[in-house]
Design a protein that fits this description.
Rossmann fold; 6-stranded parallel beta sheet; 385 residues; alpha/beta; Dehydroquinate synthase-like, alpha domain; single chain
Length: 385
């Protein structure tokens, strides 16, 4: 048995109205001039207005600044520009609010604020000095990526036009605020897509062969919560109980994929980079094909996933348990309106070679439950196209 490190260190404040406590947390963290990082869509929401109100009430001795230009799939400028504001304005903390994109950009901006000349293409060859990054408060307004509790930032690099994962424990937030009130305004389709992202995280992390039993338990409980709460959150966005359960489940999915992920994420990342597809939707459209691919090669892989979904499969054979589990997930996604094909979202067959090339280079499938070749990726993309 190899040596493994277990770590779950992110302080999290959960519950309706938790945002109202932000000023006292900023005082505790020594943050007096925060930079708020978000995207244009979030900047027009009630969630952002609630943050503005809270910051405005936090006292005359505190200034704050905002960067609202983060792209749906963050690019290097989404890190460089807030880093420049941090340096010029003398900001001593970052408040990242929104989905995974603003959270990822806010995390990484702190490194560039400290090391303006850092080249992300050399991340693995020239380690950065991570000491002394300014504190990050992460406030998700979607229940999907779980980026708020993650120690990585996914950025599309200028030089390669491919997504790169910037990873270091110092990227972790000093505080996470999970306030379901802030997710009430998320439209049903985005609620479904972000929830499918969380579900994919839980399923792929659980079936990843790395040894991490703590993550396994968290992933299975995340699946149970999502199956119970996501349909309710999609049907009634004002259901705070369902919204809260989804926020927790999304964070659990991100904690669980400390183990790593698999083939579905390696398929989804190029769809975002090359086609601009929402990451959660890309995962949802590829999940069933990926599960079937793995189940055929490793029978029984999804038995515990099925049990977490509430299926009565204890006495089933491995193959039957897998079949029932994949069938349930198929119907679950269809019930959320995510039973379409890639072509329905503008993905063209001419992109197949480029998609396969990027999927092969993506590191997630290296920890898939079973090996994946370029030919496998081609067949999988054709299946979901």
């Amino acid at each position: 048995m190899s040596l493994t490190t277990f770590s779950f260190p992110t302080p999290t404040r959960f519950g309706a109205g938790a945002l109202q406590e932000l000023p006292s947390h900023l005082v505790r963290l020594g943050v007096r001039r925060p930079l708020v990082v978000t995207d244009a869509g979030v900047a027009g929401t009630d969630a952002f207005r609630a943050l503005v109100t809270v910051l405005g009430e936090s006292g005359r001795d505190r200034d704050w600044f905002a960067y609202t230009g983060v792209h749906p799939n963050p690019i290097e400028d989404d890190v460089r520009q807030p880093a420049e504001i941090i340096r010029k304005a003398g900001c001593d903390g970052v408040i990242a609010i929104g989905g995974g994109s603003p959270l990822d950009a806010g995390k990484a901006a702190r490194l560039l604020a400290k090391r303006p000349g850092f080249d992300f293409t050399k991340f693995y060859s020239e380690p950065a000095d991570w000491t002394g990054l300014i504190p990050l408060v992460a406030i998700p307004t979607t229940a999907g990526t779980g980026s708020e509790v993650g120690r990585s930032s996914v950025i599309t690099l200028d030089a390669t036009q491919r997504k790169a994962v910037i990873f270091h424990p110092e990227l972790l937030a000093k505080l996470v605020i999970l306030d379901p009130v802030l997710t009430v305004g998320l439209p049903p389709k985005l609620t479904a897509a972000t929830g499918a992202d969380a579900l994919t995280h839980c399923i792929e992390s659980y079936t990843c062969p790395q040894f991490h039993p703590m993550c396994d338990g968290i992933a299975l409980e995340g699946i149970r919560l999502i199956v119970e709460a996501l349909p309710r959150a999609v049907k009634n966005g004002a259901d705070l109980d369902a919204r809260g359960r989804m926020l927790v489940a999304a964070a659990m999915g991100a904690v669980a994929f400390q183990k790593d992920l698999g083939v579905v994420h390696s398929m989804a990342h190029p769809l975002s980079t090359l086609c601009g597809m929402h990451h959660g939707l890309a995962n949802a459209l590829c999940l069933i094909a990926g599960m079937n691919f793995c189940a055929r090669r490793k029978p029984g892989l999804y038995r515990q996933v099925g049990l977490a979904c509430g299926l009565d499969i204890v006495t089933c054979s491995d193959g039957e348990a897998d079949c029932k589990t994949v069938g349930f997930v198929t119907q679950f996604l269809a019930g959320l309106g995510m039973n379409t094909k890639l072509r329905d979202h503008g993905v063209k067959p001419e992109l197949l070679d480029a998609l396969v090339g990027q999927a092969v280079d993506d590191p997630c499938h290296k920890t898939n439950a079973v090996p994946v070749t370029a030919e496998d990726f081609r067949a999988l993309y054709l299946e979901v196209l």
